[in-house]
Amino acid sequence: MAKAGQGGLEGIAAALPRKGPPPVELWNPPFCGDIDMRIASDGTWFYQKTPIGRAALVKLFASVLKREGDKYFLVTPVEKVGLVVEDVPFLAVELQVDKPEPDVLRQDLGQVLRFRTNVDDWVDAGPGHALRFELEATGGLKPYLHVRRELWAKVTRTLFYDLVELGEERVVDGKAMFGVVSAGEFFAMAEASAVREFA
Description:
Elements: H1 2-5, H2 9-14, E1 31-39, E2 45-47, E3 50-51, H3 55-63, E4 65-68, E5 71-75, E6 80-85, E7 90-98, E8 112-117, E9 122-124, E10 131-135, E11 141-148, E12 151-155, H4 157-166, E13 168-172, E14 175-182, E15 185-191, H5 195-198
Parallel strand pairs: 1-6, 7-12
Antiparallel strand pairs: 1-2, 2-3, 4-5, 5-6, 7-8, 8-9, 10-11, 11-12, 13-14, 14-15
């Protein structure tokens, strides 16, 4: 992959597996160096400082993205190359709120928040796919969704406002917290008394 990278994106893509979701978590190949690839904070992928315009290529690279500590890599069964990720690799760009009918045969989990990422993965917030909210330097909140394998998506500002509209207040560890529920889990955004500052 690293050698092919010098010949362009097509060479890199040719080295990647194409059938089904690759078992990246099982691969631990040798590190072959960094390539000039970057994922900007707005979700745009760049190769040699030029945006990658082909969505199919971005999806292919996203499928073999791996995080180890604070570093990101593209991996195949035989090699691993580093790339730069400015914030997190994905954006959550669409939200569907599913409110299933109660099922007497299973526990009713209430509403499920389904997010589509900028690489067309659908992720249901809930067990295994947490929402987290970080304070920004400006005092606002920055929301994130866990996608897979320690890879996260930043939730767009528009969807964040949708989450605030869906929010509710609950007592967590003796504190009144404002947050949102999905698949039976409550994800706290901030103390209820501070919510008006973020909305």
